Amino acid sequence: MPVVAPEAEFTSNSPVLLGQPTNFINQTTGSEPLTFEWDFGDSVGISTDINPSYTYLYTGTYSVTLEAYNTYGTDSIIHTVEVQEIPVLYRTLLPIMTK
């Protein structure tokens, strides 16, 4: 079997509402073992999980970086995720719905 350097790739469930987790699905290919470093683009969150979830503290568009490593090389990719404001109607009904 040929040895292959990583090719980083991921998807997410973006856009999400503020307070909801953004789930990241790692689609990186390459020879095992692979290690990962995630930077969620908000100057706070980082992870080494394969498929992390992250809850942002503020609305906005964030540039998320995934770096993948193995003994044959390194690769990285950047995608944006969007965290949206909770709609006013939903904020009004939420206390009623959780009783």
Structural account:
By secondary structure, the protein is mainly β. The protein is 10% helix and 42% strand. It has a five-stranded mixed sheet, with no helix packed on it. Strands 1-3-6 form a three-stranded antiparallel sheet, with no helix packed on it. The mean pLDDT is 92.
Question: What structural keywords apply?
Answer:
elongated; 1 helix; Immunoglobulin-like; three-stranded antiparallel beta sheet; mainly beta; 99 residues
Write a brief caption for the model:
10% of the residues lie in helices and 42% in strands. By secondary structure, the protein is mainly β.
Main sheet specs: 5 strands, mixed
The assembly state of the depicted protein chains is: single chain
Q: For the residues shown, what is the average pLDDT?
A: 92
Q: What fraction of the residues are assigned to beta strands by DSSP?
A: 35-45%
Span of the ends, CA to CA: 57 Å
Architecture, according to CATH?
A: Sandwich
The tally of structural domains comes to: 1
Count the beta strands: 8
What is the name of the CATH topology? Immunoglobulin-like
| Overall helicity | 10-25%
Write the layout of secondary structure elements.
Layout: E1 10-12, E2 16-17, E3 22-26, E4 35-39, E5 46-47, E6 53-54, E7 60-70, E8 73-84, H1 88-97
Parallel strand pairs: 2-8
Antiparallel strand pairs: 1-3, 3-6, 4-5, 4-7, 7-8
